Amino acid sequence: MNFIELPDQINNVADREAQPAALQPPRSFRPLLQHKLAAGFPSPAADYIEKGLDLNAYLVQHKEASFFFRVVGESVSGAGILDGDIVLVDRSVNPCHGHYVLAVVDGEYTLKRLHHLHGVIELHPENPSFAPIRLVEGQELQLWGVVTAVVRKYRV
Questions:
Q1: Integer Cα distance of 82 and 89 in angstroms
Q2: CA within 20 to 30 Å of 48's CA: 5, 9, 61, 73, which one?
Q3: Which class would CATH give 3-24+61-151?
């Protein structure tokens, strides 16, 4: 199961609703270059600066409903979401079949792909080492939000 590391500011459901602004990082504009990036040697592109890029403005569509979480585990590694990545979860997006969702199953947070077909709901991992979560009668499921972006920092 992929567990999600919750920031201290949102330890319980009431806090998650009350403090979205506390999780919004400050704006930081970086240059966005017009030049298409080939995977070879870079060309001098200083003359091709288009405009500044604010990653918050680029990634976050619904500021009050969006939260960043750190991924812990490998259950969705086949989707390119790796242990240590940061995912952006938007609570205002309606979860649909095929979306990656932050779900709460019997009080446990998990990140999986939502399968909702023919009235049956399952949460599928993207790693063959993990089994799908097939909900049975009596289990509690809350679809907390939809993953809209993944942020990964490469270490050098």
A1: 15
A2: 61
A3: mainly beta
